[in-house]
Amino acid sequence: MRKVPRGAVAAIVSLALLSVGIEAQQADALPAADPKPTAAPPAKVASRPDVVSAAVSARSQGSRVEVESMRTETSSTWSNPDGTMTTEAHAAPIRFKTAAGWKDVDLTLQKGVDGSVAPRSHQHGLRLGKKAAATGQVFASAGSGPGRSVEWVSPWRLPEPSLDGTKATYSDVQPGVDLVLDARRNGFENDFIVKQRPAVAPVWRIPLRTKGLTAKPQADGSIQFVDAKNVVRSMIPVGFMWDSVTNPAGDPVNKATVKVTVEQVTPGKAILVIAPDAKWFLDPARTFPVTVDPTYASGSAYANFDTFVQSDYTSDLSSAVELRTGKNGTHTERSFLNFSTAPFKGKDIISSSLSIWQYGASSCTPTTVYVRSTLTLATTATRWSNQPALGSVYGQLSAAKGFSTACPGGRISIPITPLAKAWSNAPYDVGGMALIAANEADVNSWKRFYSTDDTKDPVIGFTWNRPPVGTRHGRTVRGRRLRGTRRHHLVAVLGEPDPVGPHQGHRPGRQHGQVHLRVLHRHRLHPEGLGHLHHPRLCLRHPGRLPPSN
Predict the structure, then answer these.
(1) Is 339 part of any domain?
(2) 69 near 497, Cβ under 8 Å?
(3) Where does a domain end: 457, 479, 502?
(4) How many Å apart are CA 169 and CA 274, to the nearest integer?
């Protein structure tokens, strides 16, 4: 697939606009016709199939137009009216491929005709249970690729679930215990809400049915599901539990890990055992309700990843729906994000920013957060004592959102143009960044953001041009003066749009021909293209030999 030079696109757009102007001049010379009702302006288009058509539409309607052929699972690209391009690269999948084409991810739960519950659109086919009078019904299932899935089987009768956005609540699956399932992009969160103090600490034994996967417990307390080649396809991260005491920021004060183990019964069948610590659970100081929170997450091949670390915490926090920075009570927090550099490669970056949704703060006093590069990447092994090595500061912003109605939560945009430029020329495939408070000793520096596991995931937006290259297809427009006249010929060699993703199936070297523009003008050609010519005479010809001069 060949690149469309910027000059070629500009020439086509300018030609179209000039043609309209010429027709308008000719119309002015004709006798006035009877007035007719003014037609409504054409509706603006949101997207077009390819770069050229999107560029023409964007210039014509004065607003950006998405290029459908440049969509990927994690990014969208638009053509702007000024000829530049803008890409939004998400830190999580926003769409997925089906037999019918792309489908946007939508985690909003809805009930099917059979009573079962599922997100409107989920790439792993997540399904939640329906009302069941008997035990042994599947209450949650998700796939991890063709022929691979995990089903969670209910040891209780399931009541009719109540739905609220991405959450389904099954009240009193046990006396005084609610089951709450929350849909995630890569799986689901499973919460047991213990509403009153029990006589004994609970232990839940949940049958699992696996297809194409085997459960393997890990030393850190997590459970991995691996395929026949021992590749991790999904996992249950370390679980947590907390009571109802919170700090001023709304965070649980009393939080502890939960022991989660797996007992293999037969191939394809296992028992998941969730056993909260009895001493912690029955402590007289405990305030109910208490939440016990194991999560199931499907693995992916995406380079994007995020997590945060706390100075007094030693477990993996990558499955959380949040990222944090700054001083939180007596401890300090930092966040780390990995992004694929593929969307940036080979682009002439004009501007870029990180858009991240802040929904927590210590106050409405603005404080500065830094974006720093990382020299190594974050992983599930990242802890305060094992952080990625930090590089330079590439962006910063002073802001406060999410503390109260005086400064409600919302997106903040941190300029990171130098980092995006660095990634455009990077030899590596994944780039890392860290979010760190400028003053980690300041209690006002604490901030909380949504992570990739939430619907309001981090996004990097960048506006760019394609850099000129020295090949035939890389030339924008070439012109030449002919035998002492003021007439010039411009030849634009047009090819197909160049791909952003690796799955564009066009053949390299394919040309759509040459467009010859004959321009009769008393001045030299303006270096910025046809848009700066005045009163030209244009001749558009099909591919072939250069038309003769007169």
Answers:
(1) yes
(2) yes
(3) 457
(4) 19
Determine the structural domain holding residue 473 and report its residue range.
6-91+466-541
Nearest to 321 by CA among 291, 293, 344: 293
How far apart CA 419 and CA 334 sit, in angstroms, is: 19
CB 48 within 8 A of CB 67: yes
Q: Based on the fold, state whether residues 172 and 294 are members of the same structural domain.
A: yes
User: Three-state DSSP class for 226?
Assistant: strand
Q: How far apart are CA 258 and CA 513, in angstroms?
A: 66
Same-domain pairing of 123 and 230: yes
Pick from 101-110, 144-153, 276-285, 497-506: least confident: 497-506
Are residue 288 and residue 206 in the same domain, yes or no?
yes
In whole angstroms, how far apart are CA 318 and each of 17, 90, 119, 477, 532?
Answer: 52, 17, 23, 50, 54
| Cis ω before 289 (30° cut-off from 0) | yes
Tell me the three state secondary structure of residue 84.
coil
Residue with tokens 């957060």: 369
Distances (CA, A) of 193 to 155, 179, 184, 291, 376: 16, 6, 19, 5, 39
Q: Give the C-alpha separation, 163 to 335, whole Å.
A: 32
Distance of CA 10 to the CA centre of its chain: 30
Residue at which a domain ends, from 249, 269, 301: 301
Extract the tokens encoding 496.
């197909």
Q: What is the signed CA dihedral for 333, 339, 341, 343, rounded to 10 degrees?
A: -130
On whether the CB atoms of residues 172 and 179 are closer than 8 A, the answer is no
Query: Are the CB atoms for 151 and 272 separated by under 8 Å?
Result: no
**Within a domain: residue 548?**
no
The count of structural domains within the chain is 3
Find the radius of gyration of the CA atoms of the chain: 29
Q: What is the pTM of this model?
A: 0.75
- What are the DSSP E strand ranges found in 382-528? 390-399, 410-415, 430-437, 447-450, 459-465, 478-481, 487-495, 511-520
Q: Are 64 and 102 part of one and the same domain?
A: no
Average pLDDT, the chain: 82
Distance between CA atoms of residues 195 and 56, nearest Å:
60
The model's pLDDT over 334-345, given as tens digits with 9 standing for 90+, comes to 999 999 999 999
